[in-house]
Amino acid sequence: MLFTTFAKEDDMPPTPNTPDTATAREPEELREQLRAWLARETGDPDLAVSPPQRTTLGFSRENWFFDAVWKTNGHGDGRTRLVARRDPVGSVLDSDRAVEAAVLAAVHRTDVPVPALHWVDLDGAEADRPTLVMDRAPGRCEPFVLAGPLPEAERAALAGKFCEQLAAIHRLDPAALGLGGVLADPGPGAAHVAVAHWDAELRKIQQAPEPELEYILAWLTATAPASGATTLVHGDFKPGNVLIEDGRVTAVLDWETAHLGDPLEDVGWVTNPLRAREHLIPGVWERDDLIAAWERHTGRTADRLAVRWWNVLANLKLTVIVMAGQHALAHGRYDRIIQTPTALHRVMLGLISTYGHERGEHA
């Protein structure tokens, strides 16, 4: 189904005739911009930059791979593999590059593997649009590795590694990392804050009445669970945002939606039934296995009803992102035809029904 991979289009190849797809001149222009910027930062006027290669469509962010060579104190430091993560012309996700940079810098000081951040252009003065330049981490990205051809035991081991990394994020102390002054703490009302955020994002791009969404929003508001803890939340944890090498996780990527909130938000994201092919292995690594492993690694208890609620919120988030793509298309910022999120409406209504049955069982 189309929507199983729509949370972000970073996993998809560039599409010709898309407004933010690189023109023939764009890589060379960006190369010169990066060369001039990094030459000033490093103090080496002879710094050399290889032609940047666009690796993904990145409707939420552009990713450009390039190499740079510069000297420090007259000595060559060799070739450095870098990636420039730049805002696109139009995006389905509004996020703050300063916040993303602060989160990356903070998490880099922990055991959670993230690329080292080197330079930040917050206002687009260096590369036309806000840009982060960071190390290019080793490893490969396989969005559907758990459904791929690897032996079952290797896939199960990777699934466990992914869960360990998610739990490691939730064990971090945001205050000790200095993120208390960067990210707002929603406290026990994180679920209400999440509903309000995505409701506001919906109103920005809504083009017609959406009675099903009004019902779903009302249900989410009425049943929002109180948070048992506040942690750092990744916001888009998935194999497509992880690099792997030799059976281990070498980097967790794409922290643009990171925030403080209920860790069950991430658990609800990775147990969303619509995206089971990304996160689960039928008969081997099921929903209950993932949640139980997360509980072991964090020492927390995951309220199953609350996780189901966050499953609904995850699909509301996906719905708003799909509608944002439609809005961008209608306003000439994108020319890919985006399907309507009707399938997501059905998924949410089904989850709400399941929630009602489970709530009755737990009454």
Automatic annotation (TrEMBL):
InterPro entries reported in the protein's UniProt record: ACAD10_11_N, AGP_Transferase, Aminoglycoside_PTrfase, Kinase-like_dom_sf
CDD domains, A to Z: ACAD10_11_N-like
Pfam families: APH
Region named Disordered: 1-27
Domain of life per record: Bacteria
Domain Aminoglycoside phosphotransferase: 67-296
Name recorded for this polypeptide: Phosphotransferase family protein
Lineage of the species this protein comes from: Bacteria, Bacillati, Actinomycetota, Actinomycetes, Kitasatosporales
